[in-house]
Amino acid sequence: MKQWKIVQFNVKNAFPHGDLKETIYMECPEGYTKGGPGMVCRLRRSLYGLQQAPRAWFEKFHGTILQAGFVQSHNDPSMFTGQNAQGNTVLLLYVDDMIVTGSDTERIKELTQSLHAAFNLKELGEASYFLGLEIHRSAAGLLVNQQKYISDLLEIAQFVDCNPCTTPMEQNLKLTHEDGVLLEDQTFYRSIVESLIYLTYTCLEIAYVVQVVSQFMGDACTTRLDAVHRILWYLKGTRDVEIFFPADGEPVMEAYADADYAGCRDTRRSTSGWCVKIGRSFVSWHCRKQDKVSKSSPEVEYRSMLEVSTEMVWLQSLF
C-alpha cells in the first residue's frame, strides 16, 4: 500500500444542489404572504424529503466530477478515478461525504477547487473518522478500527461493564430454528445484529458467527440471544484491535477459501468462508451460506472457490 494522502470532505446541504426534472409544487411556507389564498410554490431545486432528491443530487455531482476530468467506475458507481502522467487520483462518495486519495497532490488541489466552485464544500483535512471507521497513519502504514462504534454499541446494549471473553463463539456452535424460547420483544436482537454486521467490515474474525446469528432475525430466541451476548463479550476485550495496511510490500493478490459440508441442520446447506489479501493486507472477506444444497464435499469447495474468484475479478476491475 502506497503512502498516499487521504483527505476528507463534506458537502453542506447536498440535496438542494440537485436540479429537478419533474414539475413539483408545494404549499407555501408558513408566514409567506405573497400571493393569494390557494397559491402554491413551484420547486426549482430538490429538497430533503423528496423521493427523487438523492438521485438529483447524485446526477449533479456526477456531472460536476466528469467535467473535472474524472471517470466513473463501471464496477462501483460511487468511485471516480482520474489518471494523468503525474499519477492516479481516486474519489469515493457516500451521500454527501467523500474521501480523496492519490499520488498526484496537485490534481487533488485542482479537484478541491472545482468542488468548492460547484458546492458548499467543507474540508475536513486528513481522514481520521469516516462512516464509523477510525483511521490512524504512521510511518509504517495505516491502522483502521471501529473502536468508537464498538464502545457505542456496548453502551446501547448495556454491556459496558461486562466481563470480556477471548473467543466470539462457543466451539462447534450449531443453532437451529427449534432451539430455545422465542423472545417476546425481538427489537433488541435485530438492532444489535444489524450493528454487528457493520462491524464485520473491520472485525473479520466475527464474520462467521455474525452470519449465523443473522439467520434468525425473524425468530430470535434465548439461545440465539446468548450467542449475541458472547460476541459482545468478545468485542469488549478486543475493541482496540486494528487492521494494519503496511506501506511496504508488493501488491500481489492472494485468496484463501474454505467451506463446511451440510453444516446447517435446518437446510443441510453448506457455508463458505473466504478472504483476499493484497500484499500483506487483508482487503476483503466474507462468510455466507451457499444458495444450494451440494451433493458432495468437493462440490462445496468448488462453490467456495468460485465465490472468492468472483471477488478477486471484481477487485482487479476497480482499477
Walk me through this protein's architecture.
- With 319 residues, the chain is an alpha+beta fold.
- It has three domains: 5-127, no CATH class; 147-238, no CATH class; 249-317, no CATH class.
- It contains seven helices and 15 strands.
- The protein has helices at residues 53-67, 105-118, 147-156, 187-199, 207-213, 222-238, 297-317, and strands at residues 5-11, 25-27, 40-42, 71-72, 79-84, 87-94, 97-102, 121-126, 129-130, 133-138, 141-145, 243-246, 253-259, 271-278, 281-289.
- A six-stranded antiparallel beta sheet has the order 4-5-6-7-1-8, with helices on one face. Strands 9-10-11-12 form a four-stranded antiparallel beta sheet. The protein has a three-stranded antiparallel beta sheet with strand order 13-14-15.
- The longest helix has 21 residues, at 297-317.
- It is globular.
- The mean pLDDT is 91.
Q: What's this entry about, in short?
A:
Pfam families: RVT_2. This protein has helices at residues 53-67, 105-118, 147-156, 187-199, 207-213, 222-238, 297-317; strands spanning 5-11, 25-27, 40-42, 71-72, 79-84, 87-94, 97-102, 121-126, 129-130, 133-138, 141-145, 243-246, 253-259, 271-278, 281-289.
